[in-house]
Amino acid sequence: MSREQKIELSWIIPSALIPIALLGLLLYAYVTHGIHVPGQEGMIDPRAISQTAPFNTPGVVQTGPGTYQATIVGKMWTFEPKEIRVKAGAEVTFVASSADVIHGMRIQGTNVNIMLLPGQISRKTARFVKPGEYLLICPEYCGIGHHLMSGKVIVE
Ligand code: CUA
Known about the structure:
It is elongated, with a radius of gyration of 21 Å. Helix content is 20%, strand content 38%. The chain is α+β, with helices and mostly antiparallel strands.
């Protein structure tokens, strides 16, 4: 191999490896942290959210032994409902959306960190093993009342 070929190869190899490594990181984030772009979980008309199931009845319902669905609507500047209660060990699937601007929903101590986009249904499941209060906040700046937007998950 000539000197020129060696130099060329020393560029070709990294320029092939870098995109492969980045793709690997994307897959890693997807698999281990569930990070993904908003998907087609479902679309709704954000103006009709208060008449659209399941958002017409926000709250928590038991869906099976130890499993719950929590329907949450984010709006300026509150969550509806502000508080949900489940039993320890519960597996809770959060189904959430926004009634106005872009909000988010992060639950401390869990892997729930989703965006609430008007017109888009977001979904995330978490298990609550330890009893206690888990603070739920809006991590997206959504206007002057952003810092007031909080709620909690109470695990009994
Ligand atoms: Cu809603 Cu910040």
